[in-house]
Amino acid sequence: MEGRIWPPGLEFDICDVQQCFPTREKQRGEREREKRRERSKRGRKETRKENEERGERKSEWRETGYREEKKETDRRKENEKREKEKRECKERDLVGEEREGSAPQSSGLTLHFTHNHTQHEHLRPAGFTEEKRREEERREEKKRREEEGRREERRRREEERRGEEKRGRGEERRRREEKRGGEERRRREEKRRRGEEGRREEERREERRREKRRERKVREEEKRGEEKREKEERRRKEKRRGEEEKRREEKKRRDERRREEKRGRDQKRRGEDIRKEERRGKRGREEKRRGKKGREEKRRGKKRRREEERRGEEKKRGEEERREKRRGEEEEEKRRVKPSSSRLSLSLGWL
């Protein structure tokens, strides 16, 4: 039996085949029932995931179908374009034959073009023989010779016409040459005049450039003088600020020293009073309770004084460094600055 699907060597009759191979509808129904059972087992989450995968597959199939459809559309457009080119080529050939005076062929060869292009071989009918090919080549050769003869005749007539025009225009050419000579003289004169004007204009431009250079140098000198004056003013302000800062620091140190001296005197007086009271034995219980607190306050006071002394030393060091730096800048500026008035007069005199 042709096209059997069971293993070779086993024979089945039609009933066995129907029993062993159920129909397609039964198989589809069984598959659907099996899928429903599987979905009910897996639950909603996996069913949702499966639906998403199926949707992705469908979208992929749809895109593939779109691509295939686009390929088919491009192929159809290309074929239509090719057919259109063939029709236009055929129409041009037929129009050329009518212009030369020969009617289009009607002997079953209407699909064949008059020119011998190999890319149109597929348009020839199946019964096109070698004899017809040679006949067509002879006809094309004849047309080509006739066309060459017509072109030669047109060329000869054109040469004759040009010769007549040339002979007739001789006098006119002589008059035109005389006129051209006068125009040439006028052009030379105009060119010489324009050259002189150009030279004068170039001299004026050069003079303007020199004047601008002089003005620019004067402005630069003035700008340098202004910058120098501003720098001197800044230096004076900085010096005044430094002196004021120094006076303030000195005043703060004097005030701090006075406070320290007063604090020392007060503390000494308190100590003397306490010792006097102790000698007399009149120090109360409250003073004893505050003894520890007093010691803590004394320790904090010593620590604060040491910190203030350290800050004062650092401040003095910083002030000394700033004074040294300012002194170095002033010396450097004195070495760099030169008198500007003589320099300005010299530069203007040189210009």
TrEMBL record:
Ranges for region Disordered: 19-351
Entry superkingdom: Eukaryota
Low complexity compositional bias, start-end: 340-351
Residue ranges with Basic and acidic residues bias: 23-37, 47-101, 118-209, 217-248, 257-299, 306-335
Designated name of the protein: Uncharacterized protein
